[in-house]
Each structure stands twice: as structure tokens, then as C-alpha cells.
Amino acid sequence: MQNGFTVSRKIQLALSDSSYRETLLSALAKDRSFRNWKVEPVRDPEPGKADVLVIDAAALDRLAGPLPNPERVVLITTNEPRQLARAWKARIQSVIYEREALSIAMLAILAARDRALKCTA
Predict the structure, then answer these.
(1) Alpha-carbon separation of residue 21 from 15, 25, 55, 69, 73 (angstroms)
(2) Residue 64: inside a domain, yes or no?
(3) Is the Cα torsion angle 41, 10, 110, 32 positive or negative in sign?
(4) CATH code, 83
(5) Is 2 among the domain residues?
(6) Is residue 69 a part of any domain in this protein?
(7) pLDDT of 3-33, one tens digit each?
(8) Domain count, the chain
(9) What's the distance, CA 100 to chain centroid?
(10) How far apart (Å, rounded) are the C-alpha atoms in residues 63 and 48?
């Protein structure tokens, strides 16, 4: 809350796999940890307009330049050295593999959310 108003926090989901995106969207909507957060699916993530970005390798390709807040990004990707090197170079702290359980993705998003809150506190 700032100046007596509730600040809306935003999570953008830029994931090519529509089934996984919808499952994650539903899980975030049900989780009380995210009750004051707006979760929106997007094709092209906008780092300046979101507190947390959840992206896949295709979305990372579409982002121009260095990420302004890589600690707030969750990358869901394959376990390929090229993809992991890209994440390292982009300074992304939360990387999970496509085949991991949904609970792992939720934990990574929760960690990114906490880092976002610390940055704006």
C-alpha cells in the first residue's frame, strides 16, 4: 500500500506452450501468495511494465538488450548448454526446466516475487 492505495503488482507470462501457460495461470490464481497480483498472459513481455516475468526461450529471444531486472525473471527452458549459457549471460537467477513439476515453477515465481518486493520496498 502506498499513500493509502493498494498498488497492483503484475506478473507477465510469456510462454509458447499454451497448455502449460493456462495451467500455471490457474495455479497462480488459486495461490493466496499472489492474491494482490495481476497475472497476465502476453506474447511479448515488457520488462518495464511487470514486476515479474515468466518467459520461455522464444520470449527471451524477443527481448531487446539487457534485462533491467534479471532477478525478477523466471526462465522456463530446456536443459541445453546453449540455453543455459544465454540465461547466465542475461544474469537470470531463476531457471527451471520445461519438464519439471509445476510446484518448482511456482517456487521460482514466488522467489522472483519476493525479490521484486524487496526492490520496491
Answers:
(1) 6, 6, 10, 22, 16
(2) yes
(3) negative
(4) 3.40.50.10140
(5) no
(6) yes
(7) 444 567 899 999 999 999 999 999 999 999 9
(8) 1
(9) 15
(10) 11
